[in-house]
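Quarterly update, task 2.4: adenosine-5'-diphosphate-bound model.
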Amino acid sequence: MAVELRRVSKVYGNGAVRTVALEEVSLVVAPGESVVLMGPSGSGKTTLLNIVATLDRPTSGEVYVLGVDVVNMPEKKLEKFRLRNIGYLFQSYNLVPYLTAEQNVALPLIALGVKKELALLKARVLLELVGLEKAAGLYPQQMSSGMQQRAAVARALANNPPILVLDEPTSNLDADNASNLLALIAAVNRIFKTTVFIATHDAEVARIATRLIYMRSGRVYEAAEPPKRELKI
Ligand code: ADP
Ligand code: ADP
């Protein structure tokens, strides 16, 4: 399995201000699936994505990513594991402010030991794929939020990760850019069998889902009918 959650709960705070963000969520996702999570604000989508991306650990329950128990993995080892296996986009894009777009995209490659020139070359190809070929030399503060979002997607794809985790990837994009980005994600999913997790409010995103999951109050509800993928590449 690509990802398996067993009775995963996440509780924030304690005492009076205790929030149950996830309540005994169990989920098995096979390699190559494209899982789209929808649901109201506060239903636990980001928390679930954080746990799948190994950026956060559950309060209780088991999490296996690519067959590996990531709950009990020491932080240092987990960082390496994440860099190698998981590309992610979260709502704060976390582009490094003093690096250009291409340097930002090259960063995870360089961190894995790819030579700088090769990493920058690949970064430029990735930027082209997200329609940012002209922005390679720009710093994050010189880019609109939509451009930063696309640069962060390019960075998430840099290491050809088997697992891609995207939180609201289309939130700052106009219809054209959003549909191009969805086509790119669908292509990566199909061609590389990348397992994709996306949280979104955008109904268009459901078009690239192989599984549609609704969240409500920290619980997951699978759509009865698996979605028929409409977006062709
Ligand atoms: P969604 O992504 O569906 O909007 P979240 O996973 O962000 O939902 O949030 C789920 C619940 O957990 C919400 O009630 C939210 O307020 C709470 N929550 C999320 N992150 C934290 C945090 N770091 N500290 C305290 N509560 C949090
Ligand atoms: P550090 O110098 O802190 O060890 P890294 O080289 O691991 O940082 O990563 C640099 C930046 O790239 C970070 O801000 C991180 O958010 C981002 N990043 C690293 N790996 C990934 C990935 N697999 N997907 C998306 N962003 C990543």
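Highlight for this quarter: The mean pLDDT is 95.
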